[in-house]
Amino acid sequence: MRTDYLFTSESVSEGHPDKVADQISDGIVDLFLTKDPEARIACETLTTTQLVVLAGEIRCKGVYEDGEWAPGAQEEIEKTVRETVKRIGYEQDGFHWEKFEFINRLHGQSAHIAQGVDAADNKDEGAGDQGIMFGYATDETPDLMPATLYYSHKILERMAADRHSGAAPFLEPDAKSQVTLRYEGSLPVAATAVVVSTQHAPGYDEGEKEAELHAYVKRVVAEVIPPVLLRETKYYINPTGSFEIGGPDGDAGLTGRKIIVDTYGGAAPHGGGAFSGKDPTKVDRSAAYITRYLAKNVVASGLATRCTIQIAYAIGVSEPLSLYVDTHDTGTVGDDKIEEAIKAITKLGGLTPRAIRTHLGLNKPIYQPTAAYGHFGRKADGDFFPWERLDLVDDLKAAFA
């Protein structure tokens, strides 16, 4: 195992075109779950210059039934989309929350998919698709997330807060960050490079205004990353120069194109499925949440300092095909023993899609806040997302007492 190496993760802001698309898609998920907790949604969003397009499949009581929209439903969908873009802060010539063209191409869920997922007299509710999902946790940070991704997210979250509050009025919504850390063994010891590219007001690409922007970014970095890690850091701030044209006007955005940003920044495997725009019957989402929950509790219980968990499903089948635990040679007990302990914890109720949704309370409109700055290691409205809870620690410790 290498003992000295560099590792890098990136993040993108809420105003990045792909993240605009993710937040719109999850806004639609939340809207439908508000109307019907058992709603089925698979919403994809395209954003580009003065245009937003929705496509996908839905089934929702009181909103879309038997191939028909309820009165006012399409208007409410458009309102949700425009309010999402307004909250992000887009009031630009190339993309303005009031002025973009809106096209809704959502339609009813495929009957052939529905028959595999729906519960029946002879079977429990099945998974919404086949797939493999991974969860991960590491003791590098207080939230048990990889440090490179943790700091990348925190830089952009701080900048967004300053933009919204007016403390940094020269910032515009689109931004990206990237943090490279040098590791000795399993510990990060230095940030060797920090990259921040941020959309800005006119004039902040030269002279005193450019210097003001650069000084601001360095202050944010110094507030986010511990000073002990910044002794040999090289900064790359808007390295291409001017960044006035951004967001969907600068580049098209699509739902689900930032899955590594959404998860572990490349520090763990990824099954390939995106989260945003999907209701929790889709195991791409719910099983990724339960594996993070399990991995985090394993690390928090002291059974390992790193943990990766994989789970696999077949469409229409309720029970998972496999469960795999890897503690990367940091475990205090065998990985197979941890697998057995997870399966034996009765409060989980199993790892079927229905059991996951019930245990984590996923049939609620909680998803739009997940769609920027990562789905893991975060709080919303002052509390952690339910898959970030540490309520299995006592059960796991008891299993090996």
Regarding quaternary structure, how should these chains be classified?
A: single chain
The largest pleated sheet is described as: 4 strands, mixed
Helix content: 25-40%
Rounded to an integer in angstroms, the radius of gyration calculated over CA atoms is 22 Å
Estimate what percentage of residues fall within beta strands. 15-25%
Number of β-strand runs:
15
Low-confidence stretches: none
Q: Tell me, rounded to a whole number, the average pLDDT.
A: 94
Please, could you describe this protein's structure?
It is a single chain. With 401 residues, this protein is an alpha+beta fold. It contains eleven helices and 15 strands. Strands 1-8-9-10 form a four-stranded mixed sheet, covered by helices on one side. The protein has a four-stranded mixed sheet with strand order 6-3-2-11. A three-stranded antiparallel sheet has the order 7-12-13. Helix 1 (17-35) crosses helix 2. The model has no long low-confidence stretch (mean pLDDT 94).
Summary tags:
single chain, 401 residues, alpha+beta, 4-stranded mixed beta sheet, 11 helices, 32% helix, flat
